[in-house]
Every structure is written in C-alpha cells, then in structure tokens.
Amino acid sequence: MIKKHYSKASRRALNMIWNAAGRYDLDPPFMAFHSNGRPDDYFNTIIGLTDKWLGLEEISAFFASYTAHPKAEEFDEFLWLGLENHIYERELLERPALPGLRKKRGDEFFLVQQTMSEQQMTMQSMPVYRQQQARWASVTGRHLPLLSPKETRMADALRFSGDLGKDGVLAAMRSFLQEFYNYDPVSDPRVSRPVTGFRAWYRKLTSHSYKQNDILLIRTGSGQGDPANAVALSWEGRKPAAPTERKAEEDARYIHDVFGPPALSEEELRQAESLLCTGNDAGCRLWITAPRQMQAPDTSSEVSGSRSYQNEVSDTRRRMMKQAEHNRRYLQDNRQTVQSSIRKLTSELDVFLASFMKGMPEQSRAGQLLPERAYRIDVLRDPMVFARDGEEKDIRLRVDLLLDASQSRMNSQERIAAEAYVIAKSLHMNHVPVSVTTFRSLRGFTVLEQLKKTADSSCEGILRYYAGGWNRDGLALKCMHYLIKEDRQHPEDLRLLLILTDANPNDSLAGSAFGKNYDGAVAVDDAASAVKALRRDRILTAAVFHGSTSHLENVYRIFGKEYVRVLSFRQFADSVIDLLQKVLQETG
Amino acid sequence: MRIQRCSELRRHERHAQDAWIVEVFMTDILEFLKNEGVSADLLDGVRAFRTEWPAAGSGYAQRVPEPEYHYLGKDVWEKALSALLAGRNLLLCGPKATGKNVLADDLAACFQRPVWNISFHINMDASWLIGTDTYDGNKVSFRPGPVWLCAHEGGFGVLDEVNMARNEALAVMHSTLDHRRMIDVPGYDKIEVHPAARFIGTMNYGYAGTRDLNEALSSRFVILSMPSISDTDLDRLLAERFPSMKEKIRNQFVKLYLEIDKKAQNAEISDRALDLRGLLDALSLMRQGIDAGSALDMCLVNKTFDAYERTLIRDVIDARIPRELSKTEIFT
Predict the structure, then answer these.
(1) pTM over 0.80
(2) ipTM score
(3) Using the beta-carbon criterion (under 8 Å), do B123 and A391 form an inter-chain contact?
(4) Would you place residue A138 in the very low, low, confident or very high pLDDT band (cuts 50, 70, 90)?
(5) Which terminus of chain B has fewer Cβ atoms in its 10 Å neighbourhood, N or C?
C-alpha cells in the first residue's frame, strides 16, 4: 500500500533496463533520463545489456570505487561512452534493431546541440561534450569535429572493443582513467570513504563549476530540438544532504540505520511532512519504510559512527531478529489454534463476502417461478412472474492492517504478530488484497514500517513485528490516510483500515505548540479526529482492541462502535468476523 | 504449448500480382496426431469412440468444431486423450496463452463431438447452466441450459474460466461430473448424462476476479497443467505459420514475445498484451503490407487500455523491432 519508491518515469526506465538484462530482480545503480523526466530508451537498454554481457555487480563496483573523486561524475560519462561501444558491438548480432536505436540517439544529440545557447554550452563539461560529439558524429555519419591529438586518443580509448571480456573492459576503464587523468581508483586513499565534514565542504566549493553540469551528463533532445531536454545518467543513492541541524541529522541517521531506507524519496517525505506534521504534530518527522529482508545483526561494516553507536544499532537489530524468532516459535507452538483460526476466519469471510456482494433478487421473465405472482400471467398477461438473482455488486475490498508497535505492546508481541498473521492470511485466501504496517514513534520520528505489501503473496514478513518506542496514533493514522489517498491505482476500491491497538496514544514529543504532553485526552482526541477524517473520505476504520479495561473509554472515543475487544486468542476469529460484518454492512 | 495452423500444414504460398494464393488441404486430426507421435493405442481408442458415437447421430453435427490451429505437444495430448477415453472430465489449468481453449476445441474435433462453449462469469448461477422456467406464451416451460443440452446430446462442454463463477453456482454440476452422471431438474425430470458427454474446464489462476475452485469440484476433474510455450515451439509455430518469414526476423519476434511474457510474469504489466493470437495477427497484417510498428500496436499494444502499460509494452517492442520494418524486410 505504501506508494512505490519509483515514480512512473523511473519505473519505466527500470523496465527498459530489466527487459534488456532479461531479469527483473536487478537493482541497477544507473538509470538514464532526459531532464524533462523522460527515460532515455537507448542508454537504459545499454545499461540492461551491460548486466547481460558483463554483470552489473563488478562494473558497479568499479564506478563506486571513485565516488570520492571530485571528477567522479565526469568519469561516469566517459566510461559509459566506452561501455556503450563495447555493448553495442557485442549485442549487434542478437538485436538487429540496435543500429537504428543508436542512430536515433545520435540524431537527438545533434538536434539539442543546434539549439543550445552559449550559456548552456559554458555550463557543461567540455571534455565530455567533445567525446560525445565525436561518438555521435561517427554513429550518424556526420563530419567529425576537429579534435586535438589528446582528444583523438581519448576517443580511440573510449571505443572499448566488443571482443573484450569482463576483465578486459575493467582494465580498459582503469587504463583510461590512468592515462588521461593520472588516476587509479585502486590506489586512491579516498576510495569508498564517505565524504563528510571539512572535506565535503571543501569539495562543495571546489566542484561548484561542475555541479551545474550534473544533469548534463549525456546530452540529447526530445526530437524537437528542445535545449532544456538534456539527459542525465542518475546514480542511484548519490543524493545531496539536506541542510538540517546536527541533532536532527543524527536522529535521521539513527532511524535510517535501524529501520532501513525510506520507501518514499526525500522530496516525497518532505511533502508528506509539510501536509501532515501540523497542529499537534508540528515539528514531528515521518519515516516510511518498505518490507525488507531481515538483515544480519552485525552492522559495523555498513554503519558509520562511533563504536558505541555501532553497537547500539547492532544491538537493536539483533533484538529485532530475536523477536522475529520468538514470533515464529509462538506460531509453531500454537499452530493448531492458528490454523483453526485461519480456517474459520477464511470460511466465514468467504461466505460473508459472497453474500455481501450478492445483489437482491429481482423479477424477470425467466428464473424461479414466484407462485404468489403466477396469477398475473393469465389475468394481466404479465410474464414478470419469475425471480432471478440480482447482479452481483462489483465491490473490491482492500484492507490495510495497522499494528501499534509501541513499547506498551512489549508483553504481547508474539500474540499480536500471530493475530495479524491470521487476519492477513485469511483475507489473502479470499483474494482480498491486504497490507500490514506497524507504527511507532522514536526521536521525533513517527515510523511506519511495512511488513507486508499488498502484492506479497507470503505473510511471513508479519513475523518481523516487534514492539518498541512511543505511539503517536493521530499522526500514524493521518499518515495512513495520506498513503491510501496517494494510492491512485485503485481509486474505486472499498478501503478498510483495521488497527490493532491498545488505545493508549503516548509520545515523548509535545502534543501542541504550547508544550502539552502528547498523552491522555489530548492524544485521544487527536487520534479520534484522525479517524473522523478517514471516515469522511469513505475509508472504513475499525479497531481490534486488546488493552486494559481502563482504556476502554479511549477506544470508544477514538473509534466509536467500530471496535471489538479480544480477550483471548481463541475467540479472536469470531471477534474479527463480527467486526468486519458490522463495519462492511454499514456501507450498505 | 505449441500451436500449429492445421489448414496450413500443406500450404503452398505463391506470390502473384501482389496477392497471396493459398491452397489448403485439410488433414484429419488423427493423422496429425499420428505424425506428432501420439500413442497408437490411444488413437485406436479415439477411433473406437468415434465409431460407437458418431457425430452425425447427435443432431448437433454442425457444432463439431473445425479448429484453425492444432495444439502441439505429445505429452499433453496423450494425457488429455487418456483422461477422456477413461470417461473422466478434464480441467486445463495454466496461465494465459498456453493453448487451453485450442486444446479443448481440438479434443472435441478429435472425438468428433459437438461443443457447447460456456463462458463462466461472476453472475453465473445454476439456472443459467442447467436451464430455467420461462413463459412461452401459453404455459410455463423449461428452457434447457447449455450443460443440460450438452449432457443430453453427448457433447463436449467447454467450461471456460470455470473459476470465475461462485462455487455455490457450480455445486449443481457435482452430480453431472461425478460417477452419478445425472442431472435432476427440480420440478421437471431427471436425465442421465449421455455416455459420450465430457466436460472440459479451463482456468487461469491469479486473474482478477478468479476464485479457488473448491475441493468438491476440483476432485471431479482430472487436472492437466498446461505448460507455457517455449522459444523452440514458438519459433516452430511461426515458421510453420509464416514459412516465407526471414529466420533472423522470426527470431526477433520469438524473443519479443518471450520478453513480454517475462514482463507479465513479473507483474510489471498485465497479461492482456501477452497474446499469441495477437502476435500471429500482427504478422498477418505485416504480410498485408502494414509496417511492423502499426501492426504490433493494433494487435498487441492496444490490447491493454492503460496508457502507462501501453508505454511499457511499446518500449519492449521498440528495443527489438524497428517501427518502420516493412513487409519486404520481414518476408522473402
């Protein structure tokens, strides 16, 4: 349910790469785009084919080896030109359409060149531009530009032969940098070291002239001679740092290291924060992550920072893994109860959903004879004396399961994981798309961690549930509301947000600009207004409550009558089906 | 899955005055199966079945199909023939474009039985299948449904996309499909299912709107899992269907189809564009002189109505087949 990380254009570029590579599990480090957002079909095909012929892992490792160098982006450009020639020659026999695509790419380059202003010309890296000009002139049969002897040697060196193997290509890449830039990534002490502190500041100053060029890596056009239509090979993951205060940066880094990278881009997160983190939630931050594989607890190699910080992150991750094991064992130990709950909920849901979608009987000229109307045939010559089933209502239900994952759930983690598993599995078996997300608040961030995406057929990810942190229910609900509305792929579907909660919102960050704590009545009212907003947008919202009796009033204030209290796992299936019936029947 | 156009098994193409003159010699399907290497015992069984239940006697001889394509695949043929000869009903399961309906029609043609094609949908109910009361102007009478007719006349009932209907609607077929072989129509009569009648279900897991077939129904079928077409089979199909197509180009179309298949398997696009008939139609249009880009747009790309999905499919095509590729470049 969480909006995909990739925009439509990125997804299209990825598809071009995957198609050429012949595999869809590839996470390419490069994608090629025009500056207007249109993917560059030729270069994306070349990137995909690079994986096919050479394997992107080692090539990417080479590109990654010089990221600390001030001219890294210029090097990218040169080396991709070299790779382009190599891949073209290798693929030519298998893909007769390639010369046409290549020529089209060359023509586009010159169309842009014709309309480029002097200012734009000065903004680009001339050595790269000269090499591109030489390459595309030879491809399209134009007059070659006048090149200096060094440029001619560069152009020759960048014509990586199709006969080279992987090692040969890597050697050619290395030798190009050595010969023309006197640079060897292998011996560079800056290799793989993140650029931080003074070095980052210094680099920012010194690389200013090239920074302006960073979207002009490979120039092309829209075919209309649009000068703004430049193309960039974007290096995934090389993102500018946001100008934030040190503490906020530390917090963000901690959240990133513990929960993984966000599923939304930085820009999308900021947009969501500007919309949602207002009023009671002013100053809060959001962090939304997609399902991920359980990572190894030893993070010392991937997490930078002091030893104690590394240990802290590593420790947290280890606890997460341990809890996943506990959840799995709980499921195993109670497999009979779990299986029977799944069976029960599945069959009851099946019957309920079928009857829910079934239309009312209607009179017709054929069907089952209605004896009380039979007289109408003779008396009134009315043939409408039969009944047939009404048209089935085309209602597609999608369920989003939101689990409170705050510290207060510490003592029932295994049970919550098992309950979520039962609900998700039963819905999935009835072909109802379901996603599962947890929420908690930590260091001012409200973290929504997705355990199961709608598209996932497996529910195993739910077992990664663990409790820890605070819970800012209002903001979490607002965030889910935002994400559901952003999911424009299925606007007509009936949405149900089901929350497993103890109805006790509580956060360390203040609940208003006046410094009131986010707990008690303030927090409950905040959550209640978020639920109201959800319902106003026709998103059905209901809660499965297993908290203490003292919070019963809270759950009523937040969710109204649309909640069910579960006291034991055995009555869980019955309670949930009752709740679903109650909520769905109210929709009519 | 391997489909071959049987009307072109002995096809001679001559190019005269810009027109394709085609001579077609129909072959008996049993001859074709013999050439495919299908067991002689099974073919003898089919011949005995045909002798015992001649189509001419059914009153619905015009419903015996004359399929345009033949399913290629000895293993699948042998399994299907064995099941039907043993009196079992058959459920053909597999993703789109695996030849389920082609095989179902071929089987009816092979046994020379009339076919009732019943497309299942969500609003299907028992009366739709078996029959319903209606008023004919004089009295309330029973209007038989396709299952009733098929069972009565000894036809082959093709239950297309059987898992699109609700399981409750299908419960009425239990006695028809199992050892009882009968249909009891409340208020009317009980009929015995004709000994030559067979039911062939087709289904595709994972389509939007599909359901799991319940155990009661699936246990009444012999289930045959249909394999996806391989590159070799697709190449063979195209070579037989378009003998004048250049090998190098044919190879590109095979790869194009498999690339679209892979994209659909990875859920990047729906399988609307994964349409083998569409690819064959596109090549037919190209043979008529339409450029490759337009033909593929009409027969594959436009099968999907989502603009973004169309873009993705077009990207796959553009990376493989030049849009302006002409008839003379494709065919000799």
Answers:
(1) no
(2) 0.70
(3) yes
(4) very high
(5) C
Residue B135, both tokens: 């008023």
Mean of pLDDT values over A577-582: 85
Residues A225 and A269 in one domain: no
Mean residue pLDDT of chain A comes to 79
d(CA B308, CA A20) in angstroms, rounded, equals 19
Contact B135 A385 (CB under 8 A): yes
Predicted local confidence at residue A251, as pLDDT: 81
Counted domains in chain A: 3
CA distance A367 to A370: 9
Q: Which two tokens stand for residue B80?
A: 């299907």
A388 and B CB contact within 8 Å: yes
| Mean pLDDT in residue range A130-143 | 91
Same domain, A259 and A366: no
Length, in residues, of chain B = 332
Q: Which residue of B has its CA nearest to A23?
A: B262
Average pLDDT over residues A100-127: 78
Distance CA A249, CA A238 (A): 17
Domain boundaries, chain B: 27-225, 231-330
Which chain B positions have a beta carbon within 8 Å of A95's beta carbon? 252, 319-320
* B27-225 is a CATH 3.40.50.720 domain: no
Asked, for residue A1, whether it belongs to a domain, the answer is no
Chain B residues lying within 8 Å of A431, measured CB to CB? 210-211
Please compute, for residue B83, the number of CA atoms within 13 A of its CA located in the half-sphere on the CB side.
22
Q: Nearest C-alpha of chain B: how many angstroms from A176?
A: 30
Report if residue A245 sits inside a domain.
no
Q: Which residues span the domain enclosing A43? A: 10-235
The CA distance from A23 to the nearest CA of chain B, in Å, is 8
Which of B125, B130, B132 is the best residue to mutate to test the A interface, defined by the most A CB atoms within 10 Å of its own CB? B132
Say yes or no to pLDDT of A253 above 80. yes
